[in-house]
Design a protein that fits this description.
single chain, about 450 residues, alpha+beta, Outer membrane efflux proteins (OEP), four-stranded antiparallel β-sheet, 6 strands, about 15% strand
């Protein structure tokens, strides 16, 4: 029995320990997972989804304009009273109770095409909201990628800062030992101490940049900032061996082709077109006030009244059926119809201006994205060449310093130039990746 209890206690202890360890481990956050979470939790996506549901409800309501409205009503009541002759003699009391019920329906036959235009307008607004939701999702994907790249960039720069500090600390120990033996002056020691101090400051700044980048990403995708996450993705390259900028160095003819492609793919442009169609329907709705209105109606009713105890005795004895067709034509509405028409025309003109402005905006964004990608490619090529040179220069100065033909100052300059070149290359990698995503966003081809 004692052995059994010991086994159970040990099992529980190991289970609790394993659970605590699993809960304390940081959660892995890859780029695809971050995008998935952002599309689910980002506030702008949720708001766009709510707007779409509202517009879809308006479409259903617009269909109701083509259906008859049906109503049912019932009434039950009674009265009683006493009467007297002039001489004061009381007459028998009277009591009457009644009950009635009716069922009616009415339907608009013609309203100046207002019902059809209202449906068209609601459908256009719903389609526009759907396009807006998809474009919002594309923007969220792009922003998530950009923030994810920023985390990876700042982490690599943090590693560079850590490596630089470690290297210069080792150099400081070497210089101090050399000075102790009399082979180096205290000036070299002070110079190296200054370099170590600068590296410590850079390390603190790099750590802050990395922490801020992580917090910005986690907050943007909608997660709890207080939680700990491991942000990494092995599918994202750290070196760019082959740059495939398919749209670089485009001629004007190719650029026009890209603009046509973007106009056919950009969901915000499609949404602007649907808004324009909705504005056109709004003009027709406003002009419906100039047309006659025809309404058909029908009804069926039952009623009865009785002086007996039950008012339902002759309820079915009185039946009625009615139908009708009403026609009304507006002659003068105090210029309200004219005002509504002018307001709708202004809305239509503004929608047309917005559509044209969206087209120009797409052209500018596409041109800017192409230039950014081309610059990012050239910048990366220059950064690679600069790093190769600075790496060789550092090796030469290190060898010179080791054999005593170089100064500590030359070595420090070479080390700083190497770190600067390495930083430029790291920045160029993620600048290119962001520029590539930005071009996909400008073309409307970014994957959701």
């Amino acid at each position: 029995m004692k052995k059994l209890l010991t086994t159970i206690a040990l099992t529980l202890f190991l289970a609790v320990g394993a659970f605590a360890q699993s809960t304390s481990q940081p959660k892995l956050l890859t780029l695809s997972r971050a995008v998935e979470i952002a599309l689910e939790l980002n506030p702008t996506v949720r708001q766009a989804q709510n707007n779409l549901e509202r517009e879809q409800a308006s479409v259903l309501s617009s269909y109701g304009n083509f259906l008859p409205s049906v109503s049912i009503s019932s009434n039950w009541g009674g009265n009683s009273g006493e009467s007297f002759l002039p001489n004061g003699q009381k007459l028998p009391s009277t009591s009457v109770r009644s009950f009635s019920s009716s069922l009616g329906a009415s339907m608009t036959v013609f309203d100046g095409f207002s019902n059809t235009s209202t449906l068209n307008q609601a459908s256009s607004n719903a389609i526009s909201s759907e396009f807006g939701l998809s474009r919002t999702r594309q923007n969220v994907v792009y922003q998530t990628r950009r923030l994810f790249y920023e985390v990876l960039r700042t982490r690599r720069l943090l590693e560079v800062a850590e490596s630089s500090l470690k290297y210069n600390q080792q150099q400081l120990e070497r210089v101090q030992e050399t000075a102790r033996l009399g082979s180096a002056s205290l000036v070299n020691v002070y110079q190296q101490q200054s370099q170590v101090g600068q590296d410590e400051v850079r390390l603190v700044q790099a750590q802050n940049d990395y922490d801020n980048a992580r917090a910005n990403l986690v907050a943007y995708i909608g997660l709890d900032v207080t939680e700990t996450y491991t942000i990494e993705d092995s599918t994202i390259p750290t070196e760019l061996t082959q740059l495939n900028a398919a749209m670089e160095k485009s001629t004007m003819q190719e650029f026009r082709r890209l603009v046509e492609t973007a106009l056919g793919s950009r969901l915000d442009y499609q949404a602007s077109k649907e808004n324009y169609h909705a504005a056109e329907s709004g003009v027709t709705i406003a002009r419906s006030g100039y047309y006659p209105r025809i309404t058909a109606s029908t009804g069926y009713g039952l009623s009865g009244n009785n002086r007996t105890i039950s008012e339902f005795d002759d309820f079915k004895n009185t039946r009625s059926f009615s139908w009708g067709l009403s026609f009304s034509f507006p002659i003068f509405s105090g210029f309200r119809t004219n005002q509504a028409e002018q307001a709708a025309l202004v809305t239509k003109k503004n929608s047309e201006v917005t559509l044209q402005d969206t087209e120009r905006k797409i052209q500018v964004e596409l041109r800017s994205a192409l230039l950014q990608l081309e610059f990012a490619e050239k910048n990366y090529d220059a950064a690679v060449k600069s790093l190769q040179y600075q790496e060789q220069n550092l090796k030469v100065n290190q060898e010179k310093y080791n054999v005593g033909s170089g100064t500590i100052l030359d070595l420090l300059f070479a080390q700083n130039n190497y770190n600067s070149a390495l930083t430029s290359k790291i920045n160029a990698v993620y600048q290119y990746l962001s520029a590539k995503s930005n071009l996909e966003l400008a073309l409307g081809s970014i994957q959701q």
